Amino acid sequence: MTQDESKRKAAEAALEYIKDVSILGVGTGSTVNHFIDCLADFNLTQDIQGAVSSSIATTERLKKIGVPVMELSESGNLDVYVDGADEVNPLKQLIKGGGGALTREKIIAGASKEFVCIVDQTKTVDILGNFPLPIEVIPMARSYIAREMVKLGGQPIWRENYITDNGCEILDVHNMEIMEPLALEKAVNNLAGVVSVGIFGLRPADVVLVATDNGVKTL
Ligand code: 5RP
After folding, report:
1. Which protein residues touch ligand 1 with a CB less than 6 Å away?
2. According to the model, what pLDDT value does residue 178 have?
């Protein structure tokens, strides 16, 4: 199975979790794009009253298949949030933000009862940090945060010519071996100028659906 086929399998498996859900949280990325395609392919768009989207790209895709997009402030808290990840550890803690939507993803994850994470098996790791850790920063703080991340042992690279949906910038921090995800998440969150860090440890996934060559496994 190709990686893309695996992503589709994980996305299909998430449909089990959205039965009877009227307003859905929807993440960002190629795996989530498969999930949105599944909503259309299985004629589920009629059953959904609306969705809260984590990015402009996802909003456009949802609208194309006829799903109304709502603001989180009007919807209130959500029952289910479906999103992908860049890395997943056995505690269902994640690195996210490869697609740059980490802040809105974190907000929706925080406001959702159940976070269903859909990944192919290449995303599972024992220790987070092989994937460069994305940090969304206020533009003015970029170099300062980069220096602070060097002190924490990483090698930050500015994601050049990239502006987030919130008008901010991203640093991708390489070579972090994240032995204590919660402590690092708190430490980076505390740096002035950080909008959010792509460690999802304080609010991990509740369910991770991992598509493997032997079927979809549930963590
Ligand atoms: C976007 C994300 C994505 O969930 C993550 O990058 C995984 O993307 P893909 O499904 O394309 O592999 O966090 O900010």
Report:
1. 27-31, 83-86, 96-102, 105
2. 98
